[in-house]
């Protein structure tokens, strides 16, 4: 049995397609015959600068492999932090009991409880709620943010009942998925290095985020113990491995991006004295910070300069859901200003940062109507833009260019990690079925992105090897994964 309870709060910033385009306003625009000729050179230049032919992909994959090694050799050795997760063993299926998971990673947070029934019954029931995080909390104080989260968690815990059963005298335990760069200090503690994905909460960086949550839970009089602090990529890997032993790598492609994988402890020079009974551990690469060899444009550089973390998270800013729509907006604005793409005047709304979101460009790219109706109505609804057919065609080309670059580079990143693992243990990755567990709204909801990513992986690996590499979407794996890791690190004995 599985029970899902969702809250009615809107999912802020989620990757949903806009409502139907039926009834969209129809415009009779005077066709500016020079729309195409003036903008063609801008488009051509963009396409050239964003191109990702095989040599570029190879270079990026190679640089990713090299950066991984440099980051494993010494702390600060490369853009990639290669963070030790303290998760040394992955779920086996034997996990039993009631566990919670709390997931803070983007514009909403999720709470979940799961009743685990061991190898026979596996996941007996799950319940979850999702609450959107008010925008002002993303720029507020640490205390405000953690109070808000702890209060949501406390309300959720109060509703526990039915099949969900906590043995008498036991404290509730939760996994805490915190999807920002954290320097783990143990399985249940870690220091926030910096916020990403548009968060600018004061007073958290440099602090132990579990302590912040514990203090907030105390203020809410919620008696719950955080038994595992994990990144969302790590939780996804654990959740996917619960069902499939061939999973060795997990990737998040959503608002932000990241990847983690199973590494041999003896292949991590910077780790001295870390004991792992399995001889393995999960490394959180924090690959969003990667930056080598990426084909970037002035639009990327300008967006980065205007961001709250200039010079940081360059890979993330090129491939992830938070930024793709914004890059497209910047290109369109330039075309409107320099090439009169939308008529003589530059539509005012188009100057607003982040007004065009990645779900909008996804919907536009999926428009296969002859007169590009959906493109027309989205441009109008979202950016206040009136467009003729020529302009709309150019807009879809721009979307395609930016999305193709991002997805193919993501594919190169995946191959970079696989290559590293294969180099260290010949045949272990390419010589057998290897599963890449994938989660995140961008991958889940953007068909073109998925296709281009897979194409890049195939091009890089060739037909034979790519048959062995399965990229599998593991929806909500991270929630269950965090609960499973909470169970594995429970303070109680496992035989109840
Ligand atoms: C964070 C990662 C996280 C990723 C996906 C990035 O911005 O730095 O820790 O895993 O987003 O949520």
TrEMBL record:
<feature type="domain" description="Hexokinase C-terminal">
    <location>
        <begin position="249"/>
        <end position="487"/>
    </location>
</feature>
<keyword id="KW-0808">Transferase</keyword>
<dbReference type="InterPro" id="IPR022672">
    <property type="entry name" value="Hexokinase_N"/>
</dbReference>
<dbReference type="Pfam" id="PF03727">
    <property type="entry name" value="Hexokinase_2"/>
</dbReference>
<comment type="pathway">
    <text>Carbohydrate metabolism; hexose metabolism.</text>
</comment>
<comment type="pathway">
    <text>Carbohydrate degradation.</text>
</comment>
<dbReference type="InterPro" id="IPR043129">
    <property type="entry name" value="ATPase_NBD"/>
</dbReference>
<keyword id="KW-0067">ATP-binding</keyword>
<dbReference type="Pfam" id="PF00349">
    <property type="entry name" value="Hexokinase_1"/>
</dbReference>
<keyword id="KW-0418">Kinase</keyword>
<keyword id="KW-0324">Glycolysis</keyword>
<dbReference type="InterPro" id="IPR001312">
    <property type="entry name" value="Hexokinase"/>
</dbReference>
<feature type="domain" description="Hexokinase N-terminal">
    <location>
        <begin position="43"/>
        <end position="242"/>
    </location>
</feature>
<protein>
    <recommendedName>
        <fullName>Phosphotransferase</fullName>
        <ecNumber>2.7.1.-</ecNumber>
    </recommendedName>
</protein>
<keyword id="KW-0547">Nucleotide-binding</keyword>
<dbReference type="InterPro" id="IPR022673">
    <property type="entry name" value="Hexokinase_C"/>
</dbReference>
<comment type="similarity">
    <text>Belongs to the hexokinase family.</text>
</comment>
